[in-house]
Amino acid sequence: MPTVFLKTYGCQMNERDTEQVARQLFDRGYTRAASEKEADVILLNTCSVRDLAEQKALRKMSNLRVLRKAKPEVVLGFLGCMAQRRGDSLEKDMAGLDLVVGTQKFHRVADLVDQAREARLGGRPKFFAEVGEEEGSEKTIRDHTLAPKQVTAFVSVMQGCDMHCSFCIVPTTRGKERSRPIAEILTEVRSLVEQGVREVTLLGQIVNMYGRREIPIVEGKSAFVQLLEEMDRVEGLERIRFTSPHPRGMKADLVGCYGRLAKLCEHLHLPVQSGSDRILKRMGRGYTAAQYRKTIEEVRKVCPGVGLTTDIIVGYPGETEEDFMATRDLMEEVGFDNGFIFRYSPREGTRAVSEAGAEVPEATKEKWNTDLLEVLDRQAAASAKIRVGSLQQILVEGPSKTNASRLMGRTRQNRLVVFEGGPRHVGQLLTVRITESTGFTDYADPSILN
Ligand code: SF4
Fold first, then answer.
1. Which residue has the CA at smallest separation from atom 6 of ligand 1?
2. Residue 169 C-alpha to ligand 1 middle, in angstroms?
3. Which segments of 29-179 does DSSP mark as H helices, in order?
4. Block means of pLDDT (10 residues each) for the chain, length 450 residues?
5. Domains of the chain with bracketed CATH
6. What is the pTM of this model?
7. Atom 8, ligand 1: which residue's CA is nearest?
8. 171 CB near ligand 1 (under 6 Å)
9. Distance, CA of 198 to CA of 343 (rounded, Å)
């Protein structure tokens, strides 16, 4: 039986797409290779958000070609965002590549892999590239490869983004916004629940704008709120999350869900990107820092203990110390549980690239990055102090990634909790007492497990 090795770079949507590709290949009889060396097919699902991510995947593929010495028939392919952005020019940059498959063609991977494999085995390797647009491709990410006792799953509800923030390559790599019908999503969720899944995270580039073109507002409720309400009614499903929303889509109907829908977890990852109105405007984000603060205030009003996380870019072209301080002030004021701080990296084909001459020196980006990470550390330590001694509900996902002899779960606020439990606890909702915390990971006392 042929074996396949899949590696994913980038975000949760990429993870989800890889899972779909794996499902197709397993259905054709492929099995998962234990390592790259043993694989008959190696596919890298790539990310384009930063140049660094592209370079990593390119370097990796370049090294993988060495495997051909021992195994000339191994099939090598790039999938996803970089494949979409660079298209068949990748073949010129990387001789010996068999496949390049873009973000709207994941459902074609198994066919193309078979063809590429046949060509290699026949001693006449051929290059295949599919990077066109395809109507309805958003509906093709719907199958799963659940591990035994897997209790959490991602469900892709929309693809693409029409927001065109000045720094972002996603509208190029992922195409126009397209959403799946509510009924199809519910069928997928119900099937996951039947297989033991208890928590579902809805995925989309701007997930809270789901269906805004396809599904009409009903009684003041957006398509996304209608979807959340339906999900809340799915029997056996315990928890709902979503990522990533756009601040512009955080309208009253959605904010109100936090106080109203029992299964919606008390966690919001809301990318702010900057606390400076001047920079937000140039980024084309469509909100001000005051509007962002107001949204947070409203969410906290209906959901006082909500866990908040964000994304921030430092060193956007033309960003001054004053702009940076506005971001820092916003962070201090909001008090995020965690955040991803990115140093601005220019992406060819985005509007921000034309801001030549306004680049922020790398050393300044580094300094600002460190500064914001220190704010996050300090805030995490302060909130950890309050949590120690408290009771928290966790959904136990499986062994801890850093110490397989322990188990890990997440609170409804999406905080990681590690504890010493047994296999029988996996998949359960437990109430545990927090005994210690590093700020970003909490530890629970096993003696009071219920
Ligand atoms: S909303 Fe998000 S995905 Fe869309 S362009 Fe802006 S940053 Fe990129």
1. 165
2. 8
3. 51-64, 80-86, 89-93, 109-121, 170-174
4. 96 96 96 96 96 95 94 97 94 93 97 97 96 94 94 97 95 95 98 98 98 96 98 98 98 96 98 98 97 98 96 97 98 96 93 84 98 96 92 95 92 96 92 93 76
5. 3-130 (3.40.50.12160), 146-265 (3.30.750.210), 301-387 (3.30.750.200), 391-448 (2.40.50.140)
6. 0.95
7. 168
8. yes
9. 36
